[in-house]
Structures are given as structure tokens and as C-alpha cells.
Amino acid sequence: MTMMKKQLLSRNLCMPKPRANALLRERLFQWLDAGLAHRVIGLYATAGSGKTTLLTTYFSQREHAVLWLSLDEECNHTELFESYLLEALAPAISGEAYQHMGRALLANKPDVWLRELVELSCTGDFILVFDNVHVLKDKALLNLLSWFLHHLQDSLRVILCGRRLPDIYLSDLAMEDALVFLRQDDLLFEEEEELHFLKVTLQLKEEDAVLRSMCRKAHGWIGGLQLQSMAGVKKLQDVSCMKDDHLLHAYITKEIFEPLCAQEQAFLYALSILDSFDAAFLQVYLQDMDTDACLKSIMEKHFILIILDEETQHYCFHDILKEYLQQLLIRSPEKKKALHIRAAEAYREVGNYQECVRHYLACEDYVHAMEMLSQTPQDHRVLYYLSRIPLDVICSRADFAYQYFFYYYANFEEVACRRMYPIICEAMNEDPTFLAFQCTMPIMNGDYMNETMTIMPLDELMKLPLSDVTKSFLLLKDAFLLAMLHDTRQCRRYLSLIEDIYTATQNMYTGSMLYLIRSQIHEALGEFQQALSAYDRLKVLLQKLSFQKPSYYVGIAGIYMKQLKTQESEQALDLCDETNTRALFSIQRAGSFTRAQLYCAMRDERGLQLLETLRGDRLYDNVLLMSSLLKIVYVWKPEHPLIHEFHRACRVQKPDDFDAQLLYAMIQCDQGDSLQAMTLIDAVLQEARRTQCRYSLIEACIIKLCRLTQEEQSIKNLFIEALTYAAEQEIRLPFLYMKKYWRGNAAFIKDCLQKASPRECTFWKSLEIPLQDAVLSERELEVLRELAQGNSNRVIGEHLYISLATVKTHVLNIYSKLGVTNRIEALNYYHTYMQE
């Protein structure tokens, strides 16, 4: 865990330490011993009843493995609650399981994630304490908590500790004897316990009669004894009735707070806005005070401090005192705001950026909060903090607006993106930076053929008054568009600038999108090894951004598909579906498209079914966007209706996309327009060589040598060029979906393979393309077609009016010419290479 994360979680995960000379309540300890035989214990009472103290002293006397989670208002955010819960349970599960659940935290829906968490096996028997459980109010979260409590493993016990139990259904657990309660009256001190608390724990030196008088006025309420000791024994009052907030606050004001000196009061005010504090931080936060002396003074006055870590002097206020001080601050909003700003600046100075943001948000200083969010490393809390900032503040500055959109986009919050995009556009359309942002949504949705797409010149973009992180997001958008338009040189330049920004800022959203786009560009260029390397770097970031796992899996599935590693591709697509628990439409679309390509390459009818499903997607109203899939369909099902629709669209739109041009050239060639086909292919070859787009270069070489040229040297040159690049990156798909067009070139290719490198020869063998020109006579072709219809030798003889012996002779000649040994192999050869 990083230092920052330790700072964030320490207070929530740290079980308070029992104070020195704490009272050991053996009567209640025995009750807890018996209570832990049940699945859940409900411990609820008012503030100051000794709930937390009872548990911490009990655990100090027992050898239980305790997991502690102190809850606060932020825990009503489901993802934050689950992140805290995972950290709390970390000691109870294996390291591998912990890492897995951390990666899955944002990839899965909350209920799915929690179900998976519950199914993990604990490494032993543990007790999980939810302290301050009364702060949980979010209905969806309470439903999750209820489900969690109803499905606990036998090795885990839960204690719900708070002023009241959460609003969840627990009656069935009680009826099953799985739930027991410890209530307020059970926690009241007996008289001897009260005296021990005053004499031994608080170390009051008053006469026994005075102490007994204090006990009578407290009526067993621990908080009452503590308050009287803070006020002083000369001001004894009946405090048992002061559990009412109004009376309690009046008592604290008159008897405890007002007698303090001005510096002590100011010190308490300053501490009241902090969730916790330590001596080192106080020296930064309150530089104008002698914080060590102030801290010592309030401790000597028996102020109710909870010890989190005695060694580092890490404390927090008891709720009674904290809530009183916060009520005072409500009457002084300017003082409260000033303290939050002061705390934010102090946390910024010590490097605790998340606490810094929290304090800016607490005083509604949204501008500074956004500035911090835009400059600091991000984690899964970013959307929670962004959700607390009003949209009008977001739209007040270009930096805020653009980052706000990209954070939601990077988190695949598709609905939120569609909602906020027009709002941001309307708010920023007169801003000089807007040209760099416009068209972001269509480009990210894949509509990169829209004629209105524009890219701000790079030198102008870099001069915009925007932060580097914002510029990186805008550069990513433009790099994606440049990649789709095959401007690889400029795209690489953009990516280089983005990497420089990522190195400097370590913004993980920048990094994840950088490697995702870089991998897609390398794939489009046919640089598969570099693409897989980029995916490896993305995989490292998935430990924190696990919601991007579906993008990772669908991406590598596409590479495996083009390498015809069909099993690996299908496994990756299955993992994409499995991790896309939020049913993100963009991921489903990409997965379906890749799966359709894979199935069509395998001649699997499921590919055509997926093709029909994709056709219903509004994006593919422009059929040219399906070119990479339709190329595969065409060599398998050339009469498919979408092929005719594509052909009509090409005649109107004149595509400049490589995939569309290559498919259009094949169609033109097969329809007899070899001249136009040759013109298209030569143009693709020239441009692919210029831009070093090796994937399209390989395809163009294969199409030309198979369909458009019969000149020996040209065939050899094209084959060598295609084989060299394909073997280097294991690019197989263009070879295999052109299989039946190899006939007639066997001799030329054999000559080339004699001079090829061992790697190239090995690669060629992996394609399993036979190099025998099957020149069958007309009669042998007739016999082969009869065989393909499943007819026996006798039936073939009857159909062709030849003897059975002649049929057998023709069959043997067919086997010999095709290089096969039986009827099944002959028919496979026929269907693969010869059937028109």
C-alpha cells in the first residue's frame, strides 16, 4: 500500500488503543465471549456509553484476530465503502485473493463484487467490527450490507457498533439465533466500576465521598463521569439527563468550554474539523500555536481523546466533544471555512492530497478542489469527489470541464458522458480552447468518418492555457483520430508528447488511455509485438483501473484473431464478456465485432449471425465502417447482401480507408474491372509503404499476386514482401482468407521459399497452405463434384455413364494430384481451395 493510501485508510482501519489503566469489565467480557458464538452482535447505545472502549479493552484481553473498520459519512459512497471493506478484510484473505479483489473493485457491479468477496475463504477465524455503523444511510449500500451479513462464512463474526443499528432487516437472523444484542442499559457502570474508572483510569485524587457523589449524578453513564471530570469536581451536576443534545451542549459550554483560556478554545476549534490528528501534522497546521503544550493541557484536563496510535501521538476526538465543537462552528461559518482552508493547505504541504481535497470540498471551495484533482495522482475516489462539485463550477473553466468529461469517459460512465457532453459544449463554445475539445464524443464513439471532424494544429494546442493533464487528454483524442485516418507519423508524434506528460504527472488515466491507443495503432500498422508490449504496460495499470480490463481483453483478442490464434482469441473475448459486468455498450460492440471477425475467418455460421446483430447498430448505418469484417465475409460469402450494399456505398463515397479500398478492389476485380482494381491496389501499396502500415501492405500484396498479376517476378516480389513482414509479426489472417486463390502460383512460391529464412519457412508451414497446383481434367473435376455431393462410386458411374473401374481410376488420380490419401481429405481440399 502506498504512503498516501496508508494516510487515507489508517484512521478507518485502526482499532483505537485502550487508555492506560482502562477498566476491564469482566462481566461484559464474558457476555461477549458467549455472544461471539453467534454470527452477528449488535452493540448500540448513545454517545459516551463506552461502546468502543468496551470492545478495545475486551480485545486487548483476548487473542482474537480482529478486523476493524471505523465508518464515516463518506462510506455511504458504495465504491468507497467496498474499498474500505476490502482493506479491512485484507489480513483475512490470501495475498493473491486480495490483489484480485482490488483489481475487480471497479470492474464489477457492487453486488457482484460483494458476492465474490463473500465466497473467498478466510485464512482463519476473524472478527470484523463495523464501528459507527449508524452513519450508513444509503439504501443501496444498506441492502448490500444486509446481504453481506446474511451470507457470512462460519469463520467470520461481525460486530455492528453504533448509536443505533442501520435500517436493515435483521429479524430473521435473530430468529435463527444468529444475532444477539448488547444495549445501552447493559453498558451502564455499576457503582464499583464507576469508582474504579474515576480513581484508576482518570486518576482523580478527590475524597471518596466526592467521587461517590459524581457516581450518583452520572447514574452509570460513562460519558457523564467523563464530562464531570472535565468540568471539575466543584461543579458537580446531575448529568444523567444530558444525553439530550441541547442539555448536553449547554452543560459543556458553561462547565467545560468557557472556562478554558482563549488559546485552548482556539486549539479545540481547529481540531474539531479534523477526523484525526497527530503531533507532527498539528505543527504544520497550527504553526502560530504551541501545539505540544496545548495538546498536553487538554489531556491533563481529561478531555475525551481516543488514542489511535500512542507511538505517533495519533488521536481523534470522542464524538461527544467533536459534535459539540462542530455545532459551535455552524454559528461561525467564516471561521469554519477559514479552518478548512487552513487544513487543506496543511495537508497539501505534507502530501496528503486526498485529505486536502476533502477539506476544500467541505468549505465548498470547489475551484481549489478541482485544481488539486487536476494536478494530483488519481485513484478510484476521483469520481466520488467530482460528483460533489456542481456542474456550473465544472463548466466555469476549460481545464475543469475537459478533465471532468475525460475522467468519466475513462471510467466508461457512458450515460454520464452523453448527459454532460452537450452541457460542456454549450458552456465552452466561445472559449478559445473549445476547438481542441469539440468532436470529442463522436470520435470516442468511433464515428471518425464524420466530415466535420477537425484537429487543432499541434503547436496551437500546446500553447493553450490548459494544464498538462488536460492537454494530454485532448492529445489522446486527436491521436486516436489520426490513427483512424492512417496519419501514423503525426500520431506517433502526439503519443510521444502524451508519454512525456504521463511520465511527469503519473496521471493513471493518461497512462491507461495512452497505452490503449498506442496498442491499437501498433495493431493497425501490423506491429503486433509492439502492440502486445503496450498491452503489457496497460496491464500493470489495471491493478488500479480494473474497470478497463474489458478494453484490454477485447484488444488482445483482436491481435490473436489476426494471428489466427483462435483459442487464445476466444478465451480473451470470453474474459472481456466476463469482466464487462456493467454491460458497457461500447465494449459489447467491440467484442461482437472481433468475435464476428474470428468466426467468419473460421467459416463459422455464428459469424454471420453476429454480423446481422451488428448491422442493427446505428454506427454501422455507414457500412464502410464494417470494411475490416466484410473483407473476411467476402472471400467466404461473396453474395452476402451487405457486400452488395458496401459496393453501392463505395461507388458513391469513394472511400480513402485502406480496409474499404482493399475490399472494393477485390469486388471490382471479380466483376471484371481489373484496371480499376489494379489502380486501387497500387495506390494502397504506395501509401502503405509510405506510412509503414504493414498489415494493409501484406493484404494488398496478397490480393495483387493472387488476383491481379501473372508476371513471375512481380508475384515473387509481392510474396517475399508479404512473407517477410508477416513472419516477423505472425500475421496469418490475410493469407488464410485468400487460400483458394493460390492455385497457379505454386512454382513461383516454392522458388521464394528456397531462399527464405528459417523463421519465414516455419511461419509458412504454420499456415498449412499446400503448394501443389491441382490441375484436374474436366472428367476428374466432374468426379470430384460428385464426391462432394456424397455419392458412392457406383452412383457416380451411373450419373457420368462410366464404368465402376473407370470411376476408381479417376478417384486415384484425384488423390495423387491433390496430394491426399482418402475421400475426406480430398473433399476438404475441394471445399477449401476449389469450390467457387
UniProtKB/TrEMBL annotation:
The entry's keywords: DNA-binding, Transcription, Transcription regulation
Biological processes per GO annotation: regulation of DNA-templated transcription
HTH luxR-type domain: residues covered: 769-834
SUPFAM superfamilies hit by this protein: C-terminal effector domain of the bipartite response regulators, P-loop containing nucleoside triphosphate hydrolases, TPR-like
Gene Ontology MF terms: DNA binding
The UniProt record lists the keyword Ligase: no
Protein name: HTH luxR-type domain-containing protein
